[in-house]
Design brief:
- It holds the Pfam family 3HCDH.
- Residues 5-185 form the 3-hydroxyacyl-CoA dehydrogenase NAD binding domain.
- It comes from Nitrosarchaeum koreense MY1.
- Keywords: Oxidoreductase.
- This protein is α/β, with parallel strands linked by helices.
- The chain folds into two domains: 5-181, Rossmann fold (3-Layer(aba) Sandwich); 191-378, N-(1-d-carboxylethyl)-l-norvaline Dehydrogenase, domain 2.
- Helix content is 52%, strand content 10%.
- The chain has helices at residues 13-24, 36-55, 61-69, 77-80, 95-108, 124-128, 162-174, 191-209, 213-222, 230-237, 239-252, 261-268, 295-298, 304-319, 325-335, 342-349, 351-365, 373-378, and strands spanning 5-9, 28-32, 71-74, 86-89, 114-117, 137-142, 151-156, 178-181.
- Strands 3-2-1-4-5-6-7-8 form an eight-stranded mixed sheet, sandwiched between helices.
- Helix 8 (191-209) runs antiparallel to helix 14, helix 11 (239-252) packs across helix 12 (261-268) and helix 14 (304-319) crosses helix 17 (351-365).
- The longest helix has 20 residues, at 36-55.
- The radius of gyration is 21 Å and the shape is globular.
- It starts with a strand and ends with a helix.
- The relative contact order is 0.09.
Length: 379
């Protein structure tokens, strides 16, 4: 199949970003939303983004105009998918809403049209089975913002055909992104299965060790090679996103995450992080400010509990044939910005020490912490 026409459903930050990268790669794109006002705003943002690239000399003004002209905003769903070969759905992460959208989409899209859901945690197989084409349904998880982030997780459902997987990987490559395949449709896929539980674990670590937020963040940044601290990263991501992902993942797999009450409390109090002016830290305005972290503070904190958490989840992905070490390292490098491979850090700390830490945590705090068989075999 020669892919030329793409429809993006949902024109928010992710939707208009995916529309822009697709049009930049030469695809004809229809951007669809339920109100014209949403589409007008999205097209303004795309225009601004392309003009900025032209001003910086990354593309010519002529290229910017040409890319913009390849995106057509349409409100009517049947019209929006009339010529589509691939529909990328980017509606909010609410299962009932997604199912409602797909019921409507399935009835108006041609039988050969491929459906791809840009979900970060919801199960692909469950959504796919609500349509008449589970073999033509796939997960395609872009990271925010799609214009800048290189990583795309590709998640086949149980019935997704090999042809659709290959075509999706080709599409990801054509929009100049790097793909990792999550080979099994597991809660959280790869990145969120590693990142979201770590935020909760950092809260437990603060309770249990008495380390301060900035000490933990400094250790995460300077000892573990993260681009920023874990609390800082949570604020940057948004507590609404983290809370939603937590709820969905925990609902489907109690082994993946041990929810800390702080996250829900912050979500309920609208302390969403940078976007609301306060999360774990306070922010004074819209401008992105970095939290003051230092190597000196990092020395006061041993982050082994956090390493044990992220590594146990990584090992679970390998043991359950959802991924392998190489793909996980590629994912954390591109998706979380890790400057040092995860398993390299683990070897420096000592796999034996990590397994012992997990065993101690399990004896004090329950089965959640039991070490994965892979880690035990790596000692």
């Amino acid at each position: 199949m020669n892919l030329n026409n793409i429809t993006v459903l949902g024109s928010g930050i992710m939707g208009h970003g995916i529309a822009q990268v697709s049009a930049t790669a030469g695809y004809n794109v229809v951007l669809r939303d339920i109100e014209q006002g949403f589409l007008d705003k999205a097209m303004e943002k795309i225009r601004w983004s392309l003009d900025k690239l032209a001003t910086k000399g990354k593309i010519t003004q002529q290229e910017a105009d040409s890319i913009y002209s390849r995106i057509t905003p349409i409100v009517n769903l049947a019209d929006a998918v009339k010529n589509a070969q691939l529909v990328i759905e980017v509606v909010p992460e609410i299962m009932d809403l997604k199912k409602k959208v797909y019921a409507e989409l399935d009835s108006v899209a041609g039988k050969d049209v491929i459906f791809a859901s840009n979900t970060s945690t919801l199960p692909i197989t469950e959504i796919a089975n609500t349509t008449s084409r589970p073999d033509k349904f796939i997960g395609i998880h872009f990271f925010n913002p799609p214009q800048l982030m290189k990583l795309v997780e590709v998640i086949p459902g149980e019935k997704t055909s090999h042809e659709i997987v290959d075509l999706t990987l080709e599409y990801v490559k054509s929009v100049k992104k790097e793909s990792v395949i999550c080979r099994r449709d597991v809660p959280g896929f790869i990145i969120n299965r590693l990142f979201i539980p770590m935020v909760h674990e950092a809260c437990y670590m603060m309770d249990r060790t008495g380390a301060t937020m900035t000490e933990i963040d400094s250790a995460v940044k300077f000892k573990l090679g993260f681009p920023m601290g874990i609390f800082e990263l949570a604020d940057f991501t948004g507590m609404d996103v983290i809370h939603k992902a937590t709820t969905e993942m925990y609902l489907r797999d109690k082994k993946v995450i041990l929810p800390h009450p702080t996250i829900e409390k912050m979500f309920d109090a609208k302390k969403l992080g940078q976007k609301s002016g306060e999360g774990f830290y306070k922010y004074s305005d819209d401008k992105y400010e970095r939290v003051a972290l230092s190597e000196e503070m990092a020395q006061k904190c041993n982050p082994i509990q956090l390493v044990a958490n992220i590594l146990n989840n990584a090992a679970w992905l390998v043991s359950n044939k959802a991924s392998d070490i190489e793909e996980i390292e590629k994912a954390v490098f591109l998706g979380l910005g890790l400057k040092k491979p995860l398993f390299e850090t683990a070897k420096e700390i000592g796999i034996k020490n990590i397994v012992n830490e997990l065993k101690q945590l399990a004896s004090k705090h329950g089965k959640f912490y039991e070490p994965d068989p892979l880690l035990i075999s790596m000692q």
